[in-house]
Amino acid sequence: MAQSPADVRPITLREIQDARERIAGTIARTPLVKLETGQGGREIYLKLENLQPINSFKLRGAANAVAKVPHDRRTRGVWTISAGNAGQGVAFAARQAGIPCTVVTIDTAPETKVERMQALGAKLVRAPFDACWEAMERREFPGVDGAFIHPFDDDDFIAGNATMGLEIMEDLPNAGVVIAAIGGGGLVCGVASGIKALNPNVRVFGAEPETAAPGALSFATGAASKFDAWQPTFVDGAGGKSVFPRMWQRIKDIVDGSIVVTLDETKRAMRTLAEKSRVIAEGAGALPAAAALYTDVDADGPIVAVVSGGNIDLAKFFELIAVKG
Q1: Which has the minimum average pLDDT: 4-8, 137-141, 142-146, 161-165?
Q2: For the stretch 169-199, what's the b/e string if a residue is b when 16 or more beta carbons lie within 10 angstroms of its beta carbon?
Q3: Which of 113, 130, 148 is the last residue of a domain?
Q4: Does the pLDDT value for residue 148 go beyond 70?
Q5: Domain stops at, among 95, 125, 148
Q6: Which is nearest to 44 in space by CA: 245, 231, 270, 301?
Q7: Rounded to an integer, what is the distance from CA 8 to the centroid of its chain?
């Protein structure tokens, strides 16, 4: 049975602070490190969410959302829809809580992410991208039961993600710009909610690949938009075919825009993070660094690039960074 979503509303600082206490025993407070390129120029810092126990920021939102499932609904389990990172987050949090977990998994999900979801005890149901995208809108999938944990359009999930914003502002109060990848929008919405609750003058931008940039199109048109030229690429954790209207309502007033980067710039950023900081970033995790390094974003202060995840097959990673750009 479809589960009706709550009305869209801002995430409050109190909710974020409560989420922080709730998930403290599950997530890591990740470091904020300066990217030393040796070339001068912009002052760039990396928020290393690839160091979470599941190597992705998704654990923040998932841990908070699973913890908020009422006890009388837990016996039926929880389920989500994911290409890999949200699925790992929900599976990790569900296993910790002793709750069964099912993940409706996009059939193009990388095998390394599929294997990690299975290792965490999740039951997987494979489905095409379009079927998964439609299920996220309807909040139901044939044959799957339990409490639905939406991977981005969920107040509790976003509040968990927003705890990252509090950490960034505590560690770098003079930050001028913060950049986070846009997939469904839950990361950038959460980061912006946390950041602007403490300092509304900090600008927050999304980052998307040129092959999947509905966020940038939505900011250009002023309405939730579809990206008709969508293509699947190695940037599997960000960039969708459209921005959900509900997510547009969430982000339009707290996010300052979305920066589009090329696939080559993303590969170069992955290589730079590996060479200069010994950081393994998946494609989506490198998008903000690519935006900070290779675009003309105007920043009155240091730039923070959120490295949202590092779940990538190592052979694929080496292939992508092998050619120096």
Answers
A1: 4-8
A2: bebbeebbbbbbbbbbbbbbbbbbbbbbbee
A3: 148
A4: yes
A5: 148
A6: 301
A7: 19
E strand intervals along 67-130? 78-82, 101-106, 123-127
DSSP 199-264: -TTSEEEEEEETTS-HHHHHHHHTS--B-TT----S-TTS--SB--HHHHHHHTTT---EEEE-HH
**Boundaries of domain holding 100:** 59-148
d(CA 305, CA 321): 19
Give residue 3's pLDDT.
65
78-82 vs 101-106, strand pairing mode: parallel
d(CA 52, CA 26): 9
Question: Which phi and psi (to 5°) does residue 242 adopt?
Answer: -160, 165
pLDDT at 307 over 60: yes
Using left for φ > 0, alpha for ψ between -120 and 50, and beta otherwise, residue 84 falls in left
Is the pTM value of this prediction over 0.90? yes
CB atoms within 10 A of CB 4: 7
Two tokens, residue 258: 């979305």
Q: How confident is the model at residue 111 (pLDDT cuts 50, 70, 90)?
A: confident
**Sign of the C-alpha dihedral computed for residues 323, 321, 41 and 204 taken in this order:** positive
Strand partners, 70: none
Q: Are residues 289 and 273 in the same domain?
A: yes
85 within some domain: yes
Residue given tokens 């976003």 in the structure block: 158
The verdict on residue 3 lying in a domain is no
Strand order in the sheet with 258-261: 32-34, 44-48, 303-307, 177-181, 203-209, 258-261
